Amino acid sequence: MNSSVPSSIGKRIFHFLLGCLSIYGFLFWISPAILKLTLSKAVFEQVQEEEIDAAALFYTDSPLTIQAEWHWKKHKRNKRPASN
Amino acid sequence: MPIKSLFQTEDHWAIWIGAAFLLIGASLFFAFPPQNMTQRHQQWEQRMEQEAQRAPFHTLAWHEAADAQQKIKGSSTTIGKSLGQLTAKPGGWSTSPLTALVLSPSKAAQKRQAKETTFQESQETLARLKQQANMAQNKAADQQFQDENLNAAAQTAIANWRIQHKKFSKISKKYKAKAYNKIPSLLALWLLLALAFGLSRSVMQKEFWAFLKGFAIVFAIGVVAYLLAGQTNMKTLGIGYAAWAILIGLLISNTIGTPAWIKPALQTELYIKTGLVLLGAEILFGKILSIGLPGIFVAWIVTPIVLISTYWFGQKVLKISSKTLNITISADMSVCGVSAAVATAAACQAKKEELTLAIGLSMIFTSVMMIVMPIAIKAMGMPEVLGGAWMGGTIDATGAVVAAGAFLGDTALNVAATIKMIQNILIGIVAFGVAIYFARQNGKAQGKDIGWGEIWLRFPKFILGFIGASILMSLLYSSLPEGTAYSIIDQGIIRGYSKNIRGWLFCLAFVSIGLSTNFAQLKKHFSGGKPLILYLCGQSFNLVLTLLMAYVMFYLVFSNITASI
To answer: Which of A22, B164, B348, B539 gives a 20 to 30 Å CA spacing to A7?
Structure first.
């Protein structure tokens, strides 16, 4: 048993539930508050309504695809003859 | 070497399991390519060439051909879709996490209905802008594209159409919301991973059933971590699955305690090393290097200097007692966050708590830097290219680099992502170097001056799997025609399959770390706040040196390249 685990079962369950509550609070109370402070009102509302893809705002996917597409376009652009 | 010894260690199993996943994926994607892939690529290539000959700018037809070509993806075939569904993580959600797993036909219809007006408006705008672009282009064509003003007007009209096209694609995706149930595919993925890793445990420790029982819980926590990371606010704040996986694990192990029957499934090293072999396949040298010459100098000169200086600073000035903790933090801060920390920690055989600490520091500062840096760059009026290069070289996590780049603009995003990816190539090289260095150091600590034979014995063999996968995939990528490589490798094996599995394996590893770590051990490693000081000093040095190098490379040495970005 970990040395940091409380000894009585009641305490352990209490601490666990407290942790779960903290996660819940962070998800639904604290994080919206942080976002309200950092994003403009319009963007915040859009994020909340999933009107805009948050991943597109803060792109969380691997940049490999972006790079692939960018490289692809660049490659195509390079194939084009010079401007008249 | 007896064959049996190739199945007795985690390193070997990581290579076999990783290779098996890659082989299965490659066989399926190559055996079932998109219909008429080569002909379609050729057809669109020809179309683009014709259009390029005809006009001095990208015509409507050129863009349409490029769009059509980009849609030729291995992940869009029946097999590709099945593999994508099998390995997909839960989706996004806002208020009810269940919607990330199940979307009923009626809810899907509701979603479509809610988007109907927006969709139709967007469609109409797109059609109008396309018509305008077409008219402007025809006017320019009537003058044989010799009139500069008409050409410029056509280009502007086409650019407006492209912006709307991008917006419409996003809306269209939401409008086409279909009902789904991800639970069966999650169960199938659990079974697949359980069998692969259960087999290895069975051969190494004869504990197949014990592993299977515990693995159900580890996987379930992994699903919860992905669910939490998929919540809209968390996605916006950039708090990903790694943070949640460790946090939930820590919450359980430090409150109710990790039950003993789960412990056989806490195979942190095995999951991490297998994930790293798959990560190797994602790092395609040729493609990355062809993107940005100045970036190579920024990433490959600054990173090793910062890595070595930070490690030296930790040993000589801060006198951090654990060399493995020191090098893990140094690598995670100077190379690319979590992946580099994981690879380095595995290479030097760092303790789990040390890896947790390094990842924790990296995640906290990544979150701060991805918000503060773009704001600061904008406030200073720094050019996008320089700002992008600076962020790409300093922010740890690749996802955060792209997010921060997107704040500044498309150019910054592309430069930042390019530099980060060039830096990512260093993961394997750093892990390789660290493994050799620590093998020698450990030998010296035992009073032996060890030779290459002994180094080989102590060398973490999974690194060979990582580098081997990268080299093989890079060779395969460059040996294929570009269209095929794009459709099958980029948009098939990697994007539609191996990257997803790698994400799951890292997630399972982080759950295992959390479930087997206690705060008391973590606190011990944090003694005197030295890891924090190390990170702060190293990152400050990194910020100064990267900015300087980015300026020299992008504005003094390769200014012609910068002008064309």
So the answer is: A22
